[in-house]
Amino acid sequence: MFKNVIVRTPAKSIVNGITSAPELGKPDYNKALIQHESYIQALKNCGCQVEVLPSLENFPDSCFVEDVAVLTERVAIITRPGAETRLHEVDHIKDTLRKYYEEDCIEEIESPGTLEGGDVMMVGNHFYVGQSDRTNEEGCKQFIDRLKKYGHEGTVVKLEEFLHLKTGVNYLENNNLLVSGEFIDNPLFKEFNQHIIPDDEMYAANCIWVNNTVIVPKGYPKVLSLVKSLGYKTIEVDTSEFRKLDGGLSCLSLRFEAQK
Ligand code: CIR
Fold first, then answer.
1. Digits of tens for pLDDT over the chain (260 positions)?
2. CA nearest neighbour of 1 among 256, 254, 253
3. Secondary element (H or E) of residue 34
4. Which of 62, 91, 121, 229 has the highest CB neighbour count under 10 A?
């Protein structure tokens, strides 16, 4: 269960965020704020206590707070983003994490390692980590070493196309995995009940399980009915403005259970 959630309010500079899809246009700041509010409300409806951090104008992508830390029940690992403009976002999360974790349970990824939280998928005690354009081999190695220190395990998944691991594969608990694109038929996932996301709704592979409810991006009817058919309660949240920057539901929060 996740009791705690951290989010960060989008900055006005969100219009200058990184995107691989400029053809979708720039995000509308006011609309992004409204969608962010609904996202917070959805998480509260799932029983989470939500801490809302202030916007950071110098960091256009900083509302994608998932990328700056990986939080487990035993350890907080501060990442080292591979996107240069995002590297120093981590400086703005450390103090917040100290409120939730003991100092000796806070770890960091160090240079030359890079790692972004979007590349990490938690399955109980096991963490899959995507080796991607943002998360390098050294970052994966450091991450798995840190995990082991706390009794967790890790597996590296090599990415060919997706931005992050969770852009294309997401765990919904109960052994259910949503898989899309390059992750379909990956032998690393063969033990899961795999549910294939159709190509025309690929963006919605990024759903999040929050305390037995699954939050699904609004506007993807096939994925919504798939998730419902698995027996989950669902909440739809519109993320159209974040999608313009390759951001999905998971990127917008850190979901965890605080240690203190
Ligand atoms: C970026 O390119 O870094 C942002 N525009 C999107 C980050 C999405 N984060 C995530 O999937 N965890």
1. 999 999 999 999 999 999 999 999 999 999 999 999 999 999 999 999 999 999 999 999 999 999 999 999 999 999 999 999 999 999 999 999 999 999 999 999 999 999 999 999 999 999 999 999 999 999 999 999 999 999 999 999 999 999 999 999 999 999 999 999 999 999 999 999 999 999 999 999 999 999 999 999 999 999 999 999 999 999 999 999 999 999 999 999 999 999 88
2. 256
3. helix 29-45
4. 62
Spatial distance between the Cα atoms of 170 and 176, rounded to a whole number of angstroms: 9
Terminal CA-CA length for the chain = 15
- The active-site residue, picked from 36, 152, 164, 195, is 164
Q: Name the closest-CA residue to atom 8, ligand 1.
A: 247
Contacts with 84 (C-beta within 8 Å, 6 or more apart), sequence order: none
Dist. CA 62 → ligand 1 center (Å)? 9
Q: How would you label 185-222 residue by residue, b for 16+ Cβ within 10 Å and e otherwise?
A: eeeebeebebbebeeebbbbbbbbbbeebbbbbbebee
Cα torsion angle, 246, 250, 254, 259, sign = negative
pTM of the model: 0.98
